[in-house]
Design a protein that fits this description.
mainly alpha; Helix Hairpins; minor pseudopilin epsh fold; 3 strands; 12% strand; binds fe (ii) ion
Length: 200
C-alpha cells in the first residue's frame, strides 16, 4: 500500500504575481498557512487510520473520515486553484479553443456562463467554492457550489476551474466585498490550464 503523505506544492508563480487583484500578503497567508493546514489535517487523519491498522485497534471512523474528506478536499481544491490562475497579461487569460466552444454550447454564451458562475460564488453560504466541472460521460459542463471543501460533490465530476470564496481568500484585500473579489478574479483565470484539464 502506498503510504505517501500529501505535500504542499509550490505556487507556479511569485507570491506577488497576481497583484493588483490578489495581494502578496493574501497569497502568503493563503498558501503557506491555510493550504498547509489542510495538508497537515489530511495527513494526520491518514496516519491515524494507518496506525490503527498497524496496531489492530479501532478508531472513530465517522469522525476521522469526515476530517479526512474536509482536509483532503481542501488540499486538492487549492492545488487546482493555484494552477488555474495566471498573472494578468500572461497571455493565458482569454477563454479560447475547445473549452470556449463547450461553454458556449452548454451555457448559450460565455457571458451567461460568467454570470451563473459569479452568482454561484456570491451565494455560497459561509465558506465554500464555485467550480466548473466536466461530466465526461455526458460530455457537458456544469457549475457546482461546494460548501466547505467537500459538500455537494459527487463522483465523476472533473473540476476544471474553481473559485475559493472562503474569507481567507479575499478578506485582507476586499474586506467583506466578496462580489468585488469575484469580479476581479476573472482577470486572473488561466484558461490554458482549464482547457488542458478538460482534455485530460
Ligand atoms: Fe482557501
Amino acid at each position: 500500500m502506498n503510504k505517501e503523505l500529501y505535500k504542499l506544492p509550490d505556487l507556479p508563480y511569485a507570491y506577488d504575481a497576481l497583484e493588483p487583484y490578489i495581494s502578496k500578503e493574501t497569497m502568503v497567508l493563503h498558501h503557506d498557512k491555510h493550504h498547509l493546514a489542510y495538508i497537515n489535517g489530511a495527513n494526520s487523519a491518514l496516519e491515524k487510520i494507518w496506525k490503527s491498522r498497524e496496531e489492530n485497534t479501532e478508531i472513530d471512523y465517522k469522525s476521522v473520515l469526515r476530517t479526512l474528506a474536509f482536509n483532503a478536499g481542501g488540499h486538492l481544491l487549492h492545488e487546482i486553484f493555484w494552477k488555474i490562475l495566471a498573472p494578468k497579461d500572461s497571455g493565458k487569460n482569454q477563454p479560447m479553443g475547445e473549452i470556449l466552444k463547450q461553454i458556449e454550447k452548454d451555457f448559450k454564451s460565455f457571458e451567461r456562463f460568467k454570470t451563473e458562475f459569479s452568482e454561484t460564488a456570491k451565494s455560497v453560504e459561509g465558506s465554500g467554492w464555485a467550480a466548473l466541472a466536466f461530466h465526461k460521460d455526458h460530455g457537458n459542463l456544469a457549475i457546482i457550489q461546494i460548501e466547505k471543501h467537500n459538500v455537494n460533490l459527487y463522483p465523476e465530476q472533473k473540476i476544471l476551474l474553481c473559485l475559493d470564496v472562503w474569507e481567507h481568500a479575499y478578506y485582507v484585500d476586499y474586506k467583506n466585498d466578496r462580489p468585488k473579489f469575484i469580479e476581479n478574479w476573472w482577470n486572473l483565470v488561466n484558461w490554458d490550464e482549464a482547457g488542458r484539464r478538460m482534455s485530460l
